[in-house]
């Protein structure tokens, strides 16, 4: 809500109007672009886009209804959805909000409903080993590497979600966390590596 009064209150209305206009322009542009050039992309109703949306690769990207993709205040990072294999899948549920995040899939990444993700890197693959030869890690597979973000999860800015992780329903991941193990439902987790710092009575 606008806290200004008098003549200054009109500036709030103008700023909101501009934001809605730019959001509508971005949304129409990207919907047309992906419909024409990205046959593997399926987008539900009510998507809102503020800023750039980058969808790369030849895999499958499914976006649910009433999602919002944008940038964080004061940041230029945009949302990127990148499939690194023709059989890779990124599935985004309904009412998901992504801000300045990169989701990279070689296998499968599933984000369920009512999730908020801010400036986070999510990747279901290491791409290559850390040795000098940098060979492809042959032990990777969809069952080992699949990432699942369950309903009502919130992930704070500058966090990293690594391969094979499930973040349970209703869990909050604090800013700057590195999640290398699955997290149970309804908890607060943070740190590097992320650990549960507050347990819910429901968990």
SSE topology sketch:
Layout: H1 9-37, E1 41-43, E2 48-49, E3 53-56, E4 60-63, E5 68-70, E6 79-83, E7 89-92, E8 97-99, E9 102-105, E10 108-111, E11 116-118, E12 121-123, H2 142-145, E13 147-149, E14 154-155, E15 160-161, E16 166-167, E17 172-173, E18 178-179, E19 187-190, E20 195-199
Parallel strand pairs: 1-4, 2-5, 3-6, 4-7, 5-8, 6-9, 7-10, 8-11, 9-12, 10-13, 11-14, 12-15, 13-16, 14-17, 15-18, 17-19
Antiparallel strand pairs: 19-20
Q: Approximately what portion of the residues adopt beta-strand conformation?
A: 25-35%
Q: What structural class is derived from the secondary structure elements?
A: alpha/beta
Please tell me the overall pLDDT: 87
Could you give a short account of the major beta sheet?
Answer: 8 strands, mixed
Task: Write the H/E string, N to C.
Answer: HEEEEEEEEEEEEHEEEEEEEE
First and last CA, distance: 35 Å
Percent in helix: 10-25%
Unreliable residue stretches:
1-7, 9-14
Radius of gyration (CA) equals 18 Å
Contiguous helical run count: 2
Characterization of this structure:
With 203 residues, the chain is of the alpha/beta class. The chain has 2 helices and 20 strands. The protein is globular. The two termini are 35 Å apart.
Notable traits:
203 residues, alpha/beta, eight-stranded mixed beta sheet, six-stranded parallel beta sheet, disordered N terminus
């Amino acid at each position: 809500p606008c806290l200004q009064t008098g003549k200054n209150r009109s500036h709030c209305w103008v700023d909101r109007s501009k934001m809605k206009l730019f959001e509508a322009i971005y949304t129409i542009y990207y919907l047309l672009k992906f419909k024409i050039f990205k046959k593997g992309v399926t987008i539900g109703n009510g998507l809102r886009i503020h800023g750039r949306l980058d969808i790369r690769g030849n895999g499958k990207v499914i976006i649910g209804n009433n999602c919002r993709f944008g940038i964080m205040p004061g940041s230029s990072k945009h949302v990127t959805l990148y499939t690194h294999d023709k059989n890779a899948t990124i599935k985004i549920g309904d009412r998901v909000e992504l801000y300045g995040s990169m989701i990279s899939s070689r296998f499968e990444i599933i984000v369920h409903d009512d999730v908020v993700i801010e400036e986070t890197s999510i990747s279901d693959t290491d791409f290559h080993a850390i040795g000098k030869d940098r060979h492809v890690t042959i032990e990777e597979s969809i069952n080992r590497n699949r990432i699942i973000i369950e309903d009502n999860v919130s992930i704070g800015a500058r966090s990293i979600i690594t391969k094979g992780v499930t973040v349970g329903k209703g869990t909050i991941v604090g800013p700057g966390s590195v999640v290398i193990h699955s997290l149970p439902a309804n908890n607060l987790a943070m740190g590097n590596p992320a650990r549960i710092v507050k347990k819910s009575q429901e968990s």
